[in-house]
Amino acid sequence: MRKNILITGGSGFIGSNLVDFLLSKGHNIFVIDDLSTGLKENENSLATYYHYDLVNCIEDSKYIEDILINHNIDFVYHLAASADIFLSINNPEKVYKINVLASIAFVNVCIKCNIKKFLFASTSAVYGEPQYLPVDEQHPTDPMSPYGLTKLGFEQYLSYLKLHSDTSFIIYRFPNVYGYRQRPDLEGGVVAIFQDAIEKNNDIKIFGDGRQTRDWVDVVDILSALDKGLGFEKKFDIFSLGSNTKTSLTMLLDYFKDITGYSKSPIYLDERDGDIKHMVMRYDYAKKELDWEPSISLRDGIRKLVDGVK
Ligand SMILES: NC(=O)c1ccc[n+]([C@@H]2O[C@H](COP(=O)([O-])OP(=O)(O)OC[C@H]3O[C@@H](n4cnc5c(N)ncnc54)[C@H](O)[C@@H]3O)[C@@H](O)[C@H]2O)c1
Fold first, then answer.
1. Residue boundaries of the structural domains of the chain
2. Could you give the CA distance from residue 132 to residue 127 in angstroms, rounded to a whole number?
3. Per-residue confidence (pLDDT) for residue 197, from 0 to 100
């Protein structure tokens, strides 16, 4: 059934892919984005855009209220955030303002306007350095960066709200997402950064010894999980959307080398604060409850990127 959907952060990497995907399924799409890291060129002429800084709704929520009511919004995807771990270390006040205070003000307006479902994009960074691998939803949370703390803080606020509102809340803890439209000039997108350096035949810099591992999932698989969230009926739940596959940075570079013929050795730099050593997440619970599992291997995903396929 056609829905009226609001996506915050819909001009960014994951959000803009989600806009295109949901439009192709026939939904009406509305976006709030301040274009701080999102790009105008990502925007789809079939969606309606509000270029607005969500921080403003801490003081005055009328602008958001009007959007929700005028467009009769059924479902909200809240993706807008500052997703930069190192900005969160250097300027935690700014990141708390966007990721916690503005998010709280925003969800409170959504509740006031009787939004039925609210899906929040959280992160594997809420776990901190894992006590066991692969992590699952029961793994203790102990973030190593203010970014992870802000995401966990807002998750906990949603958990509190489940007893105080009729809105349903779904929390997705994303792994390292990569794919079409990821920016190589922002700090988080290692795959995009490697691809960009390789295309320009530049050196690749690795922080640490390259043996740190991550769980990379193609944005196309994340879109199918986000789509399945539309039909999820529980009042509150949290899902870890990993692939159960860990890959070191060295292995990632080897995949690129195999596919592109790039042959330079990387430059190794000191480890950075806030970087965890290892992360891999299970998806068993998402498989059981959402019938979701990732379908694209990292090697195939890189080949798609190199071939310019979405
Ligand atoms: N990409 C990943 O690997 C990954 C992993 C874990 C979690 N996440 C989460 O998924 C979400 C989307 O991530 P992404 O990679 O697409 O990042 P992104 O930076 O491309 O997208 C975030 C979007 O939010 C917008 N935005 C930021 N602050 C805003 C504000 N105050 N008001 C309005 N709009 C604002 C930005 O302009 C941008 O378009 C984020 O919440 C991020 O924390 C991403």
1. 4-177+216-244+283-290, 179-213+245-279+298-306
2. 11
3. 97
Tell me the C-alpha distance between 253 and 308, whole Å: 18
Quick check: 231 and 129 in contact, CB under 8 A?
no
CA distance 287 to 299: 22
- 16 close to ligand 1 (CB < 6 Angstrom): no
pLDDT at 267: 96
Query: Is the predicted pLDDT of residue 296 greater than 90, yes or no?
Result: yes
115-146: per-residue pLDDT in tens?
A: 999 999 999 999 999 999 999 999 999 999 99
| Two structure tokens written together for 116 | 């039925």
> Distance, CA 105 to ligand 1 centroid (Å)?
17
Residue 272 one-letter amino acid: R
The two three-digit tokens of residue 5, written as one number: 């959907």
147 catalytic per annotation = yes
Q: Ligand 1: distance of its center to the CA of 258 in Å?
A: 31
- What CATH number should be reported for the domain whose range is 179-213+245-279+298-306? 3.90.25.10
Question: CA 12, CA 175: separation in Å to the nearest integer?
Answer: 17
Whether the CB of 216 sits within 6 Å of ligand 1: no
Is the pLDDT assigned to residue 1 strictly greater than 90? no
Architecture label for domain 4-177+216-244+283-290: 3-Layer(aba) Sandwich (3.40)
Residue 83 CB–ligand 1 contact under 6 Å: yes
